[in-house]
Every structure is written in C-alpha cells, then in structure tokens.
Design goal:
Length: 474
C-alpha cells in the first residue's frame, strides 16, 4: 500500500519504506489515519492535552524563563514496534544489564577488569562517580542496578544502537504508564485489535522486585524523594501511589542502631527497602556530601549493616559515564564471553590522542558530549552549530579531553507525528525500562521521546521534546 501526503524524506521512517510502502506492522493504523479528518485528529490531540493537565503530568525545567512547570507534550500518534524487533531488543538489553551489574560488582571489589587492562584503571578510580565508601560492598542479592533506563536510537540502516545507559535514578516511566492510559482512550478499537503488550503491570513488577531485596516475608517499602521541587516529583508520587507504599523525604526518616525508621502518626516504623530518587552523594550527609539537606544521616551505615536495601545501589553512576559507555562491548565480552547483541554508537574518546585529534579535525561533523552531562546539556551537534560554537568546543576538548566523547551525527529514525502542518515525520529515540529482581525483565513498551521541531535531533523534554506511547505488538 502506498502512502498519500506523508513524506519520510531521506531518513529511515518506521511507518513507510524507502519505496513508499507501508510497513506491515503499521498497516491497520495507517488505514485508520486515512479515515480520520485533520479536524478530528486535532480535537483528539486537544483532549489528550487536557487529560494530561488534569492528571498533573508535569515536569520542571530549571533553565526556562517562561516558568518552571511544564506539560510533557504527548503526541497522540503511537510508535509501533513489531514483536520480532522487540525480541532482539529484549535479549540485547538483558545481556547488557547483566554485564554492567557484574562490572559494578568487580570494580568495587576484585577489580579484575582493571587489572587485566580491559578498562583503564584511571577512568574508573579517578571518576567522581566512583564512590570510595562503596569499595568492598556487595549489595543485597548481589544486584547493583535494579532499575535501568537505556536509551536507544534507530539509524538509517534500520538497526537499533545503544545511545547511553541510565543506571542511577532513571526517570520517565510514569509518562510511559500514563500515556498508555490516555492513548487507549483515543484509539479504543484499534488498540484492542492490534494486540498491544501491556505496561500497566509495571508498578506491580516494580514492587515485587523491591520486596525481593529483603529477606523479610512482608518488607516495608518506601519511595525516597528529594521533595516537591524536584523535576520528577510527579513520577515519585505517582509510583508510590501505584505501588501502595509510602512516599518519604529525608525529614521523614531517622536512623537508630543502624536501622532506618519512618516517622508515622503511630510512632516509628522500620523501613526495609527504599526506592531512592535522590542522587548518590545527597543520600547521607555523614558519608557523602555534608551539606546535603535531602538525605538521611546514618543511612549508609544502615545500608552497610544490611538493615536496609537501596535501589539503585549507591555507586552505580560510574557505569553510565559516557566514557565508560565506549567500553561496554568489551565489558560484555569480558564477563559473558559473548558478542554484544545490540551495538553502541561508534564513539571517539577524547582522552585518547588519536581520537582527540580526529574530533578536533572533524568537529563540524560530530556530536560532542560531556561525559557527565545529561538532559541534552553540555552537548554540541556539529552540523547544526555555528563556527563560534565549533571553536568554543575545540577549546573545551583540548583543555579537558577526559571530559568529552564524540560520536557521528546519527540519522535518527522518524515516526509519524501530529504537527501544525498535519502528519509529518519527526525524529525519536527509545527508552525501555529494565527491572533486575529474581531475573532481568524488560517492560514491553518504552518511553519514546520525540523532537517536535522539524529536523531537530534533540528529543530531551528539557530541550523542548515531547513523548509518544510505544506499542509493542504480540
């Protein structure tokens, strides 16, 4: 079937092939779009926007002069992924999660991978995210990264590539869950006909995974939030509510005899597992940052004593550093003796002289990233930058090469998106969520982030991106 009025351009489009044929997994939905008027689509989008506002689906943008709280725009045209494609993604993400967990256990204990020269010792031991208090620790059940959000992109060749790993406090899962509820109402008939895998059981699976970290038959679980001014507070409160557990901040907790207690109206109640949404160094002012007003004095000693489990474990941030990312294929090979199922984006490490020279010579063609920046900050997109910006980043890279990596400018895939000009292709990435409990499980859906500006490759919500519901088919 040929498309009418929809042009993918030179990029890989997930709905139509280069020949203009509708891809099989989009057939039914494309037929539905053809029958729906532009006016009706705009009405549906308006209703979805209103529903988001009534649900309070907001996030904070600290660098925005227009006011901090914003709606994460949900485009009503879902992204559809066939099951065969998802199975490869699932296998690759499980493999990667297992290897990264083994890596974390090793670098905080035996350090075999460093002794064997597979990963440079200084890259790990001098990293600000390598936490000395965690040296010699093995977390409950030997699991470091309980909740992972891994970012992928689909390139011109139709293959997925890992863009980065998020092993600290990955956010966005509440938008995946709430978006699904909204989009199901937009397309009730077609949703049921298509056979879309469910994501609504995520809170149940998350709770089960958290409970698994304790040996108690009925462990008390809480979500530890920095508070209402945090950009992801909506998500913290949403997940606590969905799991039926307490939402707590540092002031609600107290440590006595290396045990952590919640202050309740009935007195103190011991808490066994914390899903913490506070950065590592703010967790405990006695162990990490003494100026932290968000954490709990004595929490880390209680953790070391085995009286409380923390998800994710402190110290995981060192493994999602963008420079360490370049070594993950070697990490997989080292621990699992397997080739990576999912490939990295080719990466130049500016800490290495040959790579650095290449980056300085070809900066106009590359994406340059700070190794510890997030949210689309600290980044140069060479082909879209000005000569002044190229010069600035050349200087930054030359002066502090260990702080930067560079990658080719990928031609991100496009998916149909409702715009002011009608339905048009926009660039997307994909963030599936992986839970590591008794086994590693990839939730069959994901947060699809979409660059709403025509031609833009920046999908981050803090940089003006939006989101889509992601349908994984049976």
């Amino acid at each position: 079937m040929k498309t009418e009025g929809y042009n993918a351009g030179e990029h890989y489009d997930e709905m139509i092939s280069e020949e203009g044929e509708i891809r099989e997994h989009y057939n039914e939905f494309y037929n539905h779009l053809k029958k729906t008027s532009s006016k009706k689509m705009n009405q549906l989008q308006h209703s979805a926007n209103q529903t988001q506002r009534s649900m309070g689906m907001t996030f904070n943008v600290y660098h925005d002069n227009q006011g901090m709280e914003k709606i994460l725009h949900l485009d009503i045209i879902p992204r559809i992924i066939p099951n065969s494609e998802w199975q490869k993604l699932e296998a690759g993400l499980k493999q990667r999660t297992q290897a990264l967990n083994m890596f974390l256990q090793d670098i905080y204990n035996e350090r075999n991978i460093l002794k064997d020269g597979v990963v440079p010792s200084d890259l790990i031991l001098k990293s600000k995210d390598y936490l000395e208090p965690c040296i010699g620790l093995t977390p409950p059940k030997g699991i470091w990264c309980h909740i992972t959000g891994t970012d992928l992109v689909k390139s011109k060749d139709g293959e997925y590539y890992i863009l980065e790993d998020n092993l600290r406090c990955p956010s966005g899962v509440s938008y995946m869950l709430e978006s699904r509820e909204i989009i199901k109402r937009v397309y009730p008939d077609i949703f049921n006909q298509k056979g879309v895998m469910p994501v609504s059981n995520y809170p149940t699976k998350l709770l089960r995974m958290l409970q698994n970290l304790s040996d108690k038959p009925k462990p008390v679980v809480g979500v530890l939030t920095p508070g209402v001014y945090n950009s992801a507070y909506y998500e913290h409160s949403y997940l606590a509510l969905q799991m039926g557990v307490e939402l707590v901040s540092g002031v609600d907790l107290i440590v006595e005899n290396k045990k952590v207690y919640m202050q309740t109206t009935k007195g103190l109640e011991q808490i066994d597992v914390l899903y913490r949404r506070i950065d590592d160094t703010f967790l405990d002012p006695e162990t990490f940052n003494p100026d932290s007003m968000l954490g709990v004095p004595g929490l880390f000693e209680a953790y070391k004593a085995g009286n409380i489990a923390l998800a994710n474990a402190p110290g995981t941030g060192v493994a999602d550093d963008k420079a360490v990312y370049a070594y993950v294929p070697k990490i997989i090979k080292y621990y699992l003796n397997e080739e990576p199922i999912l490939n990295n984006v080719p990466t130049y490490l500016c800490r290495e002289e040959e790579d650095r020279q290449y980056v300085l010579d070809h900066i106009e063609e590359l994406v340059v990233k700070e190794t510890n920046a997030a949210g689309g900050y600290g980044m140069l997109i060479g082909p879209k930058a000005t000569p002044e910006e190229h010069a600035k980043f050349r200087e930054l890279v030359a002066n502090n090469p260990t702080n930067y990596i560079a990658q080719p400018t990928l031609s991100l895939s496009t998916v149909p998106t409702l715009t002011d000009e009608g339905i048009s292709g926009r660039h997307v990435d994909l963030r599936p969520y992986i839970l590591y409990g008794q086994e590693i499980e990839v939730i069959p859906g994901a947060l699809t982030r979409v660059a709403l500006k025509k031609g833009s490759l920046v999908v981050n919500s803090s940089q003006g991106g939006g989101s889509k519901d992601t349908w994984v088919l049976y």
